[in-house]
Every structure is written in C-alpha cells, then in structure tokens.
Amino acid sequence: MRAAVMREGKLVVDTVPEPEPGPGQVLVKTLACGICGSDLHVLRHVGRFVEVQERSGSPFTMDPRRDVVMGHEFCAEILDYGPGAQRALPIGTRVCAMPIILGTSSLATVGYANDFPGGYGERMVLTEMLLLPVPESLPTSLAALTEPMAVGMHAVEKAGPIADDVPIVLGCGPVGLAVIAALKLKGIGPIIAADFSPRRRALAEAMGADVVVDPATCSPYQRWEELAVPAGVDPRSALTLLGLGPQPRPGLIFECVGVPGVLQQILEGAPRKARVVVVGVCMESDRLEPSLGINKELNLQFVLGYTPEEFAATLTALADGRIQAAPLVTGTVGVDGIPDAFAALAQPERHAKILAEPWREGRLS
Amino acid sequence: MRAAVMREGKLVVDTVPEPEPGPGQVLVKTLACGICGSDLHVLRHVGRFVEVQERSGSPFTMDPRRDVVMGHEFCAEILDYGPGAQRALPIGTRVCAMPIILGTSSLATVGYANDFPGGYGERMVLTEMLLLPVPESLPTSLAALTEPMAVGMHAVEKAGPIADDVPIVLGCGPVGLAVIAALKLKGIGPIIAADFSPRRRALAEAMGADVVVDPATCSPYQRWEELAVPAGVDPRSALTLLGLGPQPRPGLIFECVGVPGVLQQILEGAPRKARVVVVGVCMESDRLEPSLGINKELNLQFVLGYTPEEFAATLTALADGRIQAAPLVTGTVGVDGIPDAFAALAQPERHAKILAEPWREGRLS
Description:
Chain A is an alpha/beta fold. The first copy, chain A, has helices at residues 37-44, 46-55, 140-143, 146-158, 174-185, 198-207, 220-228, 238-241, 262-269, 290-296, 308-319, 338-345; strands at 2-7, 10-15, 25-34, 73-81, 94-96, 100-102, 107-109, 123-127, 132-133, 166-170, 192-194, 211-213, 251-255, 275-278, 286-288, 299-302, 329-334, 353-357. Helices cover 29% and strands 23% of the residues of chain A. In chain A, the strands form 4 sheets. In chain A, strands 3, 4, 5, 8, 9, 17 and 18 form a 7-stranded mixed beta sheet that branches. Chain A has a 6-stranded parallel beta sheet with strand order 12-11-10-13-14-16, with helices on both faces. In chain A, β13, α9 and β14 form a beta-alpha-beta unit. In chain A, α4 crosses α11 (308-319). The radius of gyration of chain A is 21 Å and the shape is elongated. The two termini of chain A are 23 Å apart. The mean pLDDT of chain A is 94. At the A-B interface, α2, β15, α10 and β16 of A face α2, β15, α10 and β16 of B. β16 (299-302) of chain A pairs antiparallel with β16 (299-302) of chain B, so a sheet runs across the interface.
C-alpha cells in the first residue's frame, strides 16, 4: 500500500507491506488522519524520543532504524476482521479508536511502531475492542479530531477540581486549542489565551477563548490579575497573603508550547499557589529555578494522552456539537503531499491542523 | 543585647540594639532557637535569596548590606508587652509563635529582617496575636522544634489526599525527619527513607521510618517497588499500565535535599503517576527533562512554610507525645558558639538540630 514513511530521519512516500489483522484486530481504511505536532518533533528527534520512552519505562518502543508509518489521529472505515473477531460493527462502519494495539503480552502505539502502520498509510490494523463507531451526522474530518481534542479534555480533567479558576492557556497550536475547547465545554472561564501568532489567536477566539493576548506586547499574567483579583484587593498585601479578606480567583495555567524556557517563564510569571498543567512536550533538557516554585507554592501536573472514557466523551461532544472544532482544520492533503504538509506546519501563520487522506493522491490544499 | 549577626556575608557575635515592642507586639527572651539549614543557605547565598524573594513577589524582604539577626525556630518567654496590648498571657509565660511580624501595612519574617532580630539574639519582638503558650509538660528544647516539625506537617498536608501511598523521603536532615514524623503521626506507611549518612538513617528510624536506604548501595525506588507492587504483578505489563487488574500502591516522594540534580533524579526514578512534594529548597538554577515527567504523568507540588492551624497542631502533637522529636536535638550552644555551630552543621555525621541558647555563653556541646 502507499504510505508516508519515516525512514532514516526523513519522510518519504513509498509502497510498504499491507498490514494483516491478527486475533482481536481489525483491518481498516484510513479515511483521514491529522498531522500532529508530536510527529514533527519525532521526525526531528527520533533517537531522543525513543531513548526517553525507554528511560520512562514505557512499553511503547520502536526501532528508528526500521521504517515507521506515523499518524495516530484518525477516522477509518472497517474493511475486514482478523480471526476470532466479535464483529460487533458491520464492514463499512466509520470508526475512531485510541491508537493502541493490545497484544497478548505487549502494547504498541499505532503511529509510533515498526510493525503497525499508522494513519499516514492507506490501511491500518486496529484493536477491535477499542473501536468506537462514528455517528452518522459527524463528518469524517471532525471525527479525525477526536484524538487531539481528547488530549485537551484529559489536561483539564487532570487539573483536578476547578472552582472559579481563571485559566491561562499558553500556546494556541492544536494542543492549546483543544484545551480551550475542553475548558469551554466545562463552562470554565474567562479563558485567557496567549500566542505570538495573530492567526492562532484568531483560532483561539473561534474555539472559545474570552481574552486573547500577544505575549510580545501584553503579559498574560497581567491580564489574569485584571480578571482574577477582585476590585480594591491588593494581591501582594499582607492581609491577602495571609488569606484574610477577599482572595484572588485561583490561577490555572496550561503549558501548551513545549519548548525549553517556557516552564521557567511560568515559574516567574505565575501567581502564588497556581496550578500548572504541562501538556506541551518539551523533548529537550530544560533549566528552571525551583526556589520560585517553592516561594509561590506552585503545583506542576505533567499530563499525557487520555483515558478511554475521555476519548469516548470527546467523540460524543464532537458529534453533538458541544465541541465546535471545524475551525481547526486548515488544509487537507493526499498521500504524496504529506511531506510537504509537515514542512507547511512549521509556519504557525498558515496552518493549525492538516488532515492527510492517504487513500488519494494530491498536494496540500 | 548579645546576638549572632549576619554582617557582610559572615556570622559574627556582637552587641546589637535592644528590640522594642510596638503596638500589637510583645518583647520576649529567647530561651532556645534551632539552627535551620535555610540559615546556612542564606548565609552563603544571601544576595540570591533576596533576589528570588523579590522576583517571587514575596513581601518578606531584607537589605543584606545591613545587619540581620537570623533564627526563626524558637521557644521564648514573655518579658513585656507593647502599647495597647491585650495581655492575654501573663509575663513569664513560655511561648512559641510563627516567625511573622504583622505590621499595619506590611509583613516581616522574624529571622530574615533588618528591623526585627531573630532567635540568635537574647531578645526578640513577636506578634501578640500569634503567640501560643507552651504546655507546662513540654521541655523548652522540644517546644523550639515546633517550627521545623510544622514544615513536615505542611508538606504532608499539601500532598493531598493520601490513601495507601507508600512514601519515599529523600534526604534525612531536619526537614526529611520532620516529614517522617508527620507521616508517622498520620499513620501513613511503610515509610522509606533515604540518606547517604548512616547517622541520619539512624535518626530516620528513630523518627519512625520503616525502611532506611543508603542510595549509594540501594535504590529507594527499588525498595518502593518491593513494597508497593502486589505479589505477581508486573508494573510494566500492558494490563497494569492500562489500569486493569491489581495496581501498585501510589508513589509519593518527598524531596528534602534541595540541591541541583535531585529533581532530575526523581523524574528518572519515580514510578508512573507519582506525586512529588518538593520541600527541599534548591537555591540554584536546576536542569531537568520535562518529557520524563510527561511520560510518567508526574505531579510536582512545591511547598513552603505552614498554616497557623498546622503550626498550632504541631505544638499540640509535640506536647502530647504524638511527635517524639527528642532524637533530633544533637547539641546546644551559647550565643558565642553560634558561628561554630553553623560550621558543625555542615557535617551530616555529627549533628541534626543544634539549639542556640543566646541568653548564655558557651561553646557547642
């Protein structure tokens, strides 16, 4: 089959072996697969990615010297079942699924594995018990956003109980936009969103941000203070610091940038006792001053992925329109255009989410 | 009055002005004052300490070019009241108090201020409304441990709800020992304590640690796995990682070392989804790999100080014997011996907590 393949640190379009469904597995046609920022990261730092996975005790490993077909944000169509399948869904059903292969004794991630091609190829093998049918009314292009939007849902869930917190979302790429959508879905706000790119700030507003900030001209923490501190209260006064009298609303910061230096900037800017949810994946080593965290009693919650429940709830929210994700999709591309789409995504002014449709040929549009 | 004074980056014994109690304040005689590791830190890095305080928006500031009498872990005796006092406690009452001066519009820390001498001087001024009388039965030397033991109580409180977590305490200086005492008080365990020093490991056992580990020869995370993972369960298996079947008990790590590199070691060693409470104050800039935190979904809670309720509860627990802190006190010293005591505390094999008794002369014993 045709696929965009990561080979020796480069993305090439080639013919690769057809996947074959084993027991408990299903063969699907990839209808659409979002290109994820993590894939751009992995293409650039694959050795480092694999090394950190292994040092984290992760069971998801791949050999970067062998071919990898990436792509884990997909909507697909059932073509055939492996041996001994339950066949609960008819052939031809559109499905989404967590990109995980449950083997008898091991795990693999669809899109970060050697033996299971991801959504940048024409066909994939998925785990039957993880399949979720896509409601008739939901377009394939939006169903393919289930995976990235579930990342936002999970980040908000992992923030813990949220009362009248005023959240700040730093970075409005697809991850930040997913967090904004999840906050909006839960009725949490006002939401402050910060990004250097005017295009991404416009997308943040489209997804539900109440206040957008260009960090080059305005501190998001200044805006937080204007919105979170009651009139007449000095957040630095002795009374306020001792918890006496009216208090600022809690600070809740989502780190959706994932480059070195951002955590330190957060330690410097965050209000006292703020919770920080780290969603952006910084692959490099980073430097920070722990004593700032101590003095402010900050909390850092690192997050990854989502639970099966969050994944299913995201698909439902997309289907019934409680998450309006259409503005995210800024382009589509056939299998031969995937390498160009990777290059285009490096420019934040042009694109947010590009969907690959590997069943067809065609350049980026 | 006589005092050990921080002057131009050195500790000298000299005569300094008598403090005078203002409105709402009380004049006390320092009966005993513990020497805190933070004071050793501040003596070495005073410029950095003040800079980070200011960058954290802290209202507690001092001018390192002027004299500072440190000392914030005290038991004292009421000598006199300032104007307009309520005088709820008779002259001569032994008291403990949070080391905070509540001014009309500002805050100061007793022991880190220019205008309010701390417990390394013969007399101090304290805030009347913060005074807690010391129960008759509690020796002065143990009452002086209220402040450092409250730090441990606060760290355990800030860890959040604790179910059957198996805690690891990294570093068994006074902070780590206070955390062990607070865990023991709450019935949380088994407690794993790690320190390179045999003396400190013995103290950890005396304070209630169930398992002590020399990190030079045995990984505390290995011991955690032996204690927290049910027999027959592979913590790295697909089933366990998906949350199916019996799960390991939660990981809860207390960072009580406070030197660069420890946070990175924790990110590397911690089990998945562990909570990390950062109590040790690392004054330097530090380096770590956020992607390890992401892959394991770790939580880092930075903590500082204690609440008034925790402070009072600690004094009560010391008085009724639920915290047995006597083993912590490894020496006492008169006012002229305080500089030598600072030097002695740099050697972990000799001392844990040295109490200064600035009302007398005398070398370290």
